[in-house]
Amino acid sequence: MFILIVGAGRVGSAVAKKALEQGNEVSVLDEDPLSHEQLDKDLVDSWEDAGGRFTVGTALEVDALLEAGIEEADVFIASTNGDNTNLVVAQIAQRRFNVARVVVRVLDPARAAWYAEQGLDTICPTQHAIEMFERAALSPAEA
């Protein structure tokens, strides 16, 4: 399976390394060339020596998506630190390139819910944190 991940921060690079470890083809696109360090971290070899691809470019530019391999992608993950970028590139992957599985990180719970209703597979870490705090702080204490 070919997985394209936009955003090589903590989340994107961790998912990329796990996907590569499981035998998938993985390409990562990030606008910061130094983000490559997250991919190399804790690897014996470099990211590329381990079989990964890395492209420097802005995800909002179709040429960068093409260079990173969006036309080959079975799975597209948008995990930049910006909701707007994630949502726009996820829709491009889904609608223009017909990627079979598109997963997008959205920090705003209201927006995440709305985009999920529109058919995007959304992950909202903010909503997960709210639910965890509610369970931890507001649930009756166990005896």
Could you describe the 3D structure shown?
The chain is α/β, with parallel strands linked by helices. It has a single domain, classed as 3-Layer(aba) Sandwich (Rossmann fold), CATH 3.40.50.720. It is 43% helix and 19% strand. It has helices spanning 10-21, 36-40, 62-68, 83-96, 109-117, 125-138; strands at 2-6, 25-30, 53-56, 75-78, 101-105, 121-123. A six-stranded parallel β-sheet has the order 3-2-1-4-5-6, with helices on both faces. Strand 1, helix 1 (10-21) and strand 2 (25-30) form a beta-alpha-beta unit. The longest helix has 14 residues, at 83-96. 34% of the residues are buried. The mean pLDDT is 93.
Give the structure's gist in a few sentences.
Helix content is 43%, strand content 19%. With 143 residues, it is of the alpha/beta class.
For the biggest sheet, the summary is: 6 strands, parallel
Name of the top-level CATH class? Alpha Beta
In total, the number of domains comes to 1
**Tally of DSSP β-strands:** 6
> CATH superfamily, called what?
NAD(P)-binding Rossmann-like Domain
- Mind telling me which CATH architecture this is? 3-Layer(aba) Sandwich
Mean pLDDT: 93
Q: Which regions contain 5 or more consecutive residues with pLDDT less than 50? A: none
Strand-residue fraction? 15-25%
Helix and strand pattern: EHEHEHEHEHEH
Helix content: 40-55%
